[in-house]
């Protein structure tokens, strides 16, 4: 594994603070399905959430280049969106939180 992949892996472990089962249950909720960029089908974040569950259930040794590319995308999404919290909206029920949760990160969870 390259050093870059190790960094991506460690960042992913920090970015994704939801367990696979927890994320699967969230993805089934109406709130999860209510947010995200979609063209009449499943949103990008929702698709990402399903992929995150697959990645989190793999052994580290079984991760491939596609997994690392997706993990890097997740890290970037979470970092970018954490920097753009809602100003007036209740964070607990905000589209901001719901979108982040589709990507495996609940911003209201303590680290």
Layout of helices and strands:
Blueprint: H1 3-15, H2 20-27, H3 30-33, H4 44-56, H5 65-82, H6 95-102
Helix pairs in contact: 1-5, 2-4, 4-5, 4-6
Helix content percent band: 55-70%
CA distance, first residue to last residue: 27 Å
Major β-sheet annotation: none
Give the class from helix and strand content and strand pairing.
mainly alpha
Estimate the mean pLDDT confidence: 91
3D shape: globular
Radius of gyration based on Cα positions: 14 Å
Poorly predicted ranges: none
The number of helical segments is: 6
**β content, as a range?**
under 5%
- Could you give the order of the helices and strands? HHHHHH
Number of strands: 0
Number of discrete domains: 1
Keywords: DNA-binding
Pfam families: DUF3140
GO molecular function, one term: DNA binding
Protein name: DNA-binding protein
Give an overview in words.
The protein has one domain (about 5-100). It is about 60% helix and about 0% strand. It is built from six helices and no strands. The chain has helices spanning about 5-15, 20-25, 30-35, 45-55, 65-80, 95-100. α1 packs across α5, α2 (about 20-25) runs antiparallel to α4 and α4 (about 45-55) crosses α6. The longest helix is centred in the middle third of the chain and has 18 residues, at about 65-80. The mean pLDDT is about 90.
